[in-house]
Amino acid sequence: MQDESFDSRDDASLPVPVQVGLAAMRARGPSPEAVERLRAGLGLAGPSGPEQPPEPSPPHPASSPVEPPPAPTILSLPILKSASAVLLAAVVGGLLWFATRPPSPAAVFPSGSSATSAPSLPTLAASSSPQIVQPPVSSASVLDEPKIVRPAESKPASAVPSELDLIQQAQRALHSHPQRTLSLCREHARRYPHGMLAQEREVLMVEALQRLGHDEEAKDRSRAFLKDNPDSAHRKKIEHVTGQPSSSSSAPAHRPSDAPKSKRHE
Amino acid sequence: MALADMDESSGPRLEFSQVFESHVSFVWRVLEHHGIRGDDVEDAAQEVFIIVAKKLATLNDPSCLRSWLFGIARRVAASHRRRAHVRREQLASDPGKDSADMGQHARNEQVEALTRLESVLGELKEEQRMAFILREVEQLSIQEVAQALGCPLQTAYSRVKAAREHVIAAFREPNPQEVVDAG
Known about the structure:
heterodimer, B: 183 residues, mainly alpha, Rna Polymerase Sigma Factor, Chain: A, Arc Repressor Mutant, subunit A, 2 domains, 9 helices, globular, disordered N terminus
């Protein structure tokens, strides 16, 4: 019923600061302690046991053919981390420049590398088998992709890309370069697993996967997202994107809504 | 049949505990959108869900759940405001609390964007502001917005549209805060 009447709305049509403000508003909610007190006051059963959300859901390792190999071990070295931050800042700057250009990938990336392989105008129609073979993407390729950097328009080289930088670029690339959206979202997941825009990242990843024809992975991710965020404001959008009326039942009773969002203190 | 059990007398029935788990954040935000702040939010949320527990069986169409919850939360908020004399003006800005809530990843630009958006929304008529919030923040369908606000579909559309235009236009202007800083 609701899905049929869903009139698609798109944050991307709003100015970026508005998008950020919206994300901040959506991120609001009761603290886990407040939820516990409410449960107690309402006579509801609490969570069944001390569930410690182990890791942020975003990485979902080994769940997809395009998932990058785990890279954090290397990047956890401080010196490499800062070096990669510099590179990434430059990349984000390049992307910023890129995103403002007309969608002409071949001209923008003279190196003709994997950066040009993103399909143009991928259809949203669900194709049963992915026809688009994407080159494996890793964190390294994220750093390597854009060969052109316009320092004049990029952030200062010393700046670590902010959550906003990454999500903003990922959002801009979605329609023309969903593969790049994936790469940037993965970068965001690595840097800001619990970031304020984590839900936006997941939605973007689902949309990008769909555009790339990876329907199964998109559905897996959307299911995981809805399970972890049963009351997300993005619920309807996720359901709409994947065409799955994944019911609220995807959140089992023993899995409280606050569990994945914040660490429990007990 | 998520969220729902079969009830012989009244058809599909939502289960209270799952309604709570799935929508406690939504209700919380709706109360905040209506100007409830601080400890009052928790008290009001408790009140909302007590009503929900009592009346859930009367809700026959699960697709109306969010607009139904919105209606309850709105009435509870109004009642709380009257009792606590919470002034409407408090709604627009409480940046100190917001920035504290955002945790370690908080960045100035996010705090600024939030504060500015709330300020801009505060300039709107209440029905436009709420239509925008339900549509753009809570991402309800336009039908749900119309249900929640008790207005025709077309009215809901035009309220959201007017609010969006106002917000977009306001954000085209330089941020007053930045202008002050630069000066």
